Design the sequence.
RNA sequence: GCCGAUGUGGUGAAAUUGGUAUACACGUCAGACUCAAAAUCUGAUUCCUUUUAUCGGGAGUGAGGGUUCGAUUCCCUCCAUCGGCACCA
């Protein structure tokens, strides 16, 4: 047998392929033919490529090569997730800049991947640590910020004391740091968060429309944790006389660990308390509101702010406070691991169960989590195991509500499988005797009618903390006022006191969102005015201004001013002289002639800019002053506004009001009712949102904010950028003396959340990717990556994509149409590969010893792509033997003429390989190649058919097949530019097949038959089989089951 | 604890909608070649059983049960392994 000189041919062909650029991404792509194949972005670790990487790149590469051969236009790129803690920690240890080792590791990875024969377009590679990449990571952060999705808040966060940084929930594994295994502690710190929770519903629901592994979809759904239930208010009963001073309620918005949405809700409640003067409510979230008759106590999380509010009423405060303080010192892990529930009853206070009207006690206990729901529960010990355990320990009465049930813990909301109507309610007042299906909606309705409940959907998902106190990441592109006091930071944390809305040209104050918004604000007891601007069809700027000024309260800073369309300019002029909490400009139409002649549909871009500038000049509006006066400026633009050339307008505002948040809304027209009401709630949210006057976005032309090199990156708990001597250079000139750059860096997951967009257009310095490139290539057709990223990277990428969709940049809202995970490759000892076990296989060693084709085919042959499987060196040699036999046969073959049988065999093989490759069943495709070679060695073959075999092997063994193709057979063009051979369907059924003859279901013989033979002939053949006849002889045939081409079963 | 996935030879594994269980490969054994070994080639290889050898017979896809002419595949109960979540009300 001839042995392949793999080292020689691999070197030769790698160079030739590179020179002839055969793997370059095609230009002029037909959308119907595009195929975007994406291997997961690797972290370029110093220890080099792992066999698991090799599996991913090989699988993607075989698939990509196959797609090219069937005529698809393929995009396949590999880039580098280069920022991150391991590189930084290594840098700290060695005192070498992380860039040096990272770039070295990247070179190494690239060489190793190239050696595997991966047909990657390296011209498009990206590294997330390069400024031309992280410029756009920063841009994405600002996109989030512009849309109100990035916020800074003091919260209890996960702190790793060894890495000296904050971690996302996804990076905490069993209470330990994912990277260094240090136990995580909770620490109150001000951090940047992204509001991924705002997308929780869509992130959960849209999982149903993508082709992902079922268990992955399930895991992501569980992580998002959607549950349907109700918010129920319990009236608080104070036993001491006299009501507390409610003024103290105002300072509650920054309390620890309680979600913003909860706080919003509680502040709603406050309005109720103001109104009734004597009533306070405790709100709980429950999914089993129908068990409320059994609620015999309520429980607050130790973080719950109501505890502080009730302090003066709680007669055993000292004891309660001690408990609260004690839980503060417990780690999340301690709290999880404690199996025995603890808690304290609050003396002196209680709540009223709204259904039974009985007074029930309040407890504080750490089995209730501050971060979920409202941080408070109604406890139903009869139907909840946790509540039961607690009630037994603290001797609270237990009430059962279900008759006929064996399991006392069932809640009749959802736990009962099958026929729920065999149980009925007891102890449930007017609902006694009802079935669960009847009672659940009826009880909710009753509670709603009483005004104490509303249906509510809750999520487990928390907002994503993205700031890191580390060096090796993209700087966070924000600036902050250095001397900001707590007072400045929090002065706009509550609701605004007044909202002024200015209507548009030719419109009335009752139109569009104006009245709706006013009604919504009234519910929150926020004053809102909409002045009638004079002569709306022939407006005069100064007249509008004069009228508007009459409703502005110039002494009230906590005020929101909204200018819509033409009144944008009125609002701007007002903001020049009046201090405002927030200025909102909705669809700012150009002021060209409009104050007299009315608004035209889109005018030329030049006209717009000229008209705006003339207007600003004529009316002497000082935009700098406007920025200084406003806590925040938000400009809403719609991507299809008929009156506004949206791109130019956006650009002008970016330049002239650089601190403004520009909020792009997809297809909202001119923000009128015609375009749908979907923007109305967004506007309301924006009116109510907290404003941080001490924080501003970086200007666009300041991007990228360069990560400085002059930094001592040793961890101190302070962000290392604090100590850079030059990081703040030029900031005063750009932003003013009192401002400085944010010194935190961004979580590396932000870098990897959008890289697949950058591959499309990696050198674009005007956008993260051009519209054309996005339209051509996205979404990703096939994404292969590890299952460890399900609740991190994969969730974040979907989030980013949905935000881009909402902002009108793209017209799809799921990035990865088809996604699969590769299984883990274990060592020969069936253990996870690890230095500790000494069972690590280095793919490059295998390439050197046996060749790239061998490791490619071996890793595919090991088993199904998604399964974990153990390495076997002996089996690697088996694959190598197969390739040597292919080579030897090609070299020495004395080909014969075509024979029909061989042709049938070939097409059977080709059909199987074609389908298996398309379906990613690479392991069975390889076994089909081997089977076919066995056949060929026994029967010989014609040259024509053998060529077809070699072609079909090309995606799997690119080097060997190229060598045979060009060197042995003198073909002029690379085999990798050839077309995939088509199998002939008509040949597949032609051959004679063997089917089993069964007697009473047991195989007694086999007959050769074609698939269209009828039953009588088949029976005749069966009788000729001696062993079959032995049974049929003298027997009475009761039944014959004959499935042509499959089986003949005779029942006697 | 809850949820999910997976259990097939000595090993990795295969088996379209239920239709010859163990393809393909590794390993092992025997033989060929060789002074010898490696490499290579040929053959055997689920277990039990019958037989001088065939031809046969029985059991068999984690265990037990069910549906069916027929079950690795569908249903029920249980066990084991792996993975995820972990007081989410």
Sequence:
């Amino acid at each position: 047998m001839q042995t392949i000189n793999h080292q020689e041919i691999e070197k030769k062909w790698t160079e030739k392929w590179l020179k002839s650029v055969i793997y370059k991404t095609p230009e002029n792509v037909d959308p119907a033919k595009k195929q975007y194949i994406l291997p997961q972005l690797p972290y370029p670790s110093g220890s080099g490529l792992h066999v698991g990487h090799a599996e991913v790149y090989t699988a993607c590469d075989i698939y990509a090569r196959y797609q090219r051969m069937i005529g698809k236009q393929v995009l396949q790129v590999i880039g580098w997730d280069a920022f991150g803690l391991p590189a930084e920690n290594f840098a700290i240890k060695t005192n070498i800049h992380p860039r040096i080792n990272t770039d070295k590791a990247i070179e190494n990875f690239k060489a190793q991947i190239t050696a595997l024969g991966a047909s990657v377009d390296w011209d498009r590679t990206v590294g997330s640590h390069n400024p031309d990449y992280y410029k756009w990571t920063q841009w994405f952060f600002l996109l989030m910020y512009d849309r109100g999705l990035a916020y800074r808040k003091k919260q209890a966060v996960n702190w790793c004391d060894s890495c000296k940084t904050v971690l996302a929930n996804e990076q905490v594994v069993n209470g330990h740091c994912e990277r260094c295994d240090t136990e995580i502690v909770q620490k109150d710190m001000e951090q940047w968060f992204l509001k991924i929770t705002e997308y929780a519903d869509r992130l959960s629901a849209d999982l149903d429309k993508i082709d992902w592994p079922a268990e992955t979809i399930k895991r992501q759904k569980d992580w998002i944790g959607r549950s349907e239930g109700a918010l129920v208010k319990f009236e608080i009963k104070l036993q001491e006389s006299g009501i507390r001073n409610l003024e103290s309620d105002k300072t509650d918005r920054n309390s620890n660990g309680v979600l913003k949405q909860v706080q919003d809700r509680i502040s709603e409640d406050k309005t109720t308390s103001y109104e009734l003067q004597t009533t306070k409510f405790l709100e709980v979230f429950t999914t089993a509101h129908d068990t409320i008759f059994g609620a015999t106590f309520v429980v607050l999380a130790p973080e719950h702010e109501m505890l502080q509010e009730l302090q003066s009423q709680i007669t055993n405060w000292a004891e309660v406070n001690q408990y609260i303080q004690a839980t503060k010192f417990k780690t999340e892990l301690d709290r999880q691991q404690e199996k025995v529930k603890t808690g304290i009853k609050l003396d002196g206070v209680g709540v009223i169960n709204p259904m039974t009207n009985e007074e029930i006690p309040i407890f504080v206990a750490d089995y209730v989590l501050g971060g979920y729901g409202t941080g408070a529960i109604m406890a139903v010990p009869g139907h909840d195991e946790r509540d039961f355990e607690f009630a037994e320990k603290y001797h609270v009465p237990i009430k059962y509500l279900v008759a006929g049930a064996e399991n006392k813990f069932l809640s009749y909301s959802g736990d009962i499988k099958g026929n729920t109507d065999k149980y009925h309610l007891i102890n449930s007042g007017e609902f006694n005797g009802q079935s669960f299906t009847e009672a659940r909606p009826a009880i909710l309705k009753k509670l709603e009618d009483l005004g104490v409940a509303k249906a509510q959907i809750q999520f487990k998902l928390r907002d994503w903390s993205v700031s890191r106190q580390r060096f090796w990441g993209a700087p966070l592109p924000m600036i902050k006022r250095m001397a900001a006091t707590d007072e400045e930071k929090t002065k706009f944390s509550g609701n605004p006191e007044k909202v002024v809305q200015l209507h548009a040209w030719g419109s009335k104050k009752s139109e569009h969102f104006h009245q709706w918004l006013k009604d919504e604000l009234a519910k929150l007891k926020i004053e809102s005015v909409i002045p009638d601007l004079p002569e709306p069809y022939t407006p005069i700027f100064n007249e509008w201004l004069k009228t508007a000024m009459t409703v502005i309260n110039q002494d009230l800073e906590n005020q929101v001013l909204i200018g819509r369309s033409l009144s944008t300019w009125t609002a701007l002029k007002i903001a020049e002289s009046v201090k405002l909490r927030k200025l909102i400009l909705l669809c700012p139409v150009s002021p060209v002639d409009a104050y007299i002649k009315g608004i035209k549909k889109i005018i030329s871009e030049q006209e717009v800019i000229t008209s705006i500038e003339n207007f600003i000049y004529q009316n002497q509006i000082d935009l700098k002053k406007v920025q200084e006066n406003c806590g925040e400026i938000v400009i809403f633009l719609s991507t299809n506004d008929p009156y506004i050339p949206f791109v130019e307008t956006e650009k002008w505002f970016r330049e002239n009001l650089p601190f403004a948040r520009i909020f792009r809304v997809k297809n909202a027209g001119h923000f009128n009712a015609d375009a749908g009401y979907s923007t109305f709630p967004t506007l309301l949210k924006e009116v109510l949102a907290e404003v941080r006057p001490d924080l501003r976005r970086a200007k666009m032309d300041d991007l990228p904010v360069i990560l400085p090199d002059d930094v001592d990156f040793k961890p101190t708990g302070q962000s290392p950028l604090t100590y850079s001597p030059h990081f703040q250079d030029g900031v005063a000139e750009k932003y003013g003396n009192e401002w400085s750059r944010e010194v935190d860096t961004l979580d590396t997951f932000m870098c990897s959340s959008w890289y697949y967009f950058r591959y499309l257009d990696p050198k674009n310095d005007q956008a993260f990717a051009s519209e054309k490139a996005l339209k051509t290539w996205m979404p990703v057709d096939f994404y292969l990556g590890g299952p460890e990223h399900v609740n991190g990277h994969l969730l974040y990428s979907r989030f980013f994509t949905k935000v881009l969709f909402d902002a009108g940049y793209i017209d799809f809202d799921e990035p990865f149409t088809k996604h699969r995970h590769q299984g883990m490759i274990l060592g020969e000892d069936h253990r996870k590969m690890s230095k500790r076990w000494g069972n690590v296989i280095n793919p490059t060693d295998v390439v050197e010893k046996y060749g790239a084709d061998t490791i490619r085919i071996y890793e595919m042959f090991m088993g199904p792509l998604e399964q974990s499987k153990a390495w076997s060196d002996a089996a690697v040699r088996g694959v190598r033997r197969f390739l040597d036999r292919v080579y030897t046969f090609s070299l020495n073959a004395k080909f014969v003429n075509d024979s029909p049988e061989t042709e049938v065999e070939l097409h059977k093989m080709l059909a199987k390989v074609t389908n298996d490759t398309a379906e990613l069943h690479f392991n069975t495709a390889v076994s089909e190649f081997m089977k076919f070679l066995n056949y060929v060695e026994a029967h010989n073959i014609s040259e024509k058919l053998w060529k077809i075999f070699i072609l079909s092997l090309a995606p799997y063994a690119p080097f060997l097949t190229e060598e045979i193709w060009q060197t042995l057979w003198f073909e002029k063009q690379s085999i990798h530019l050839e077309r995939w051979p088509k199998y002939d369907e008509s040949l597949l059924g032609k051959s004679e097949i063997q089917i089993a003859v069964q007697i009473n279901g047991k195989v007694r013989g086999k007959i050769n038959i074609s698939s269209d033979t009828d039953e009588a002939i088949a029976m005749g053949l069966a009788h000729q089989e001696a062993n079959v006849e032995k049974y049929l002889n003298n027997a009475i045939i009761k039944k014959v089951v004959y499935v042509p081409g499959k089986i003949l079963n005779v029942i006697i």
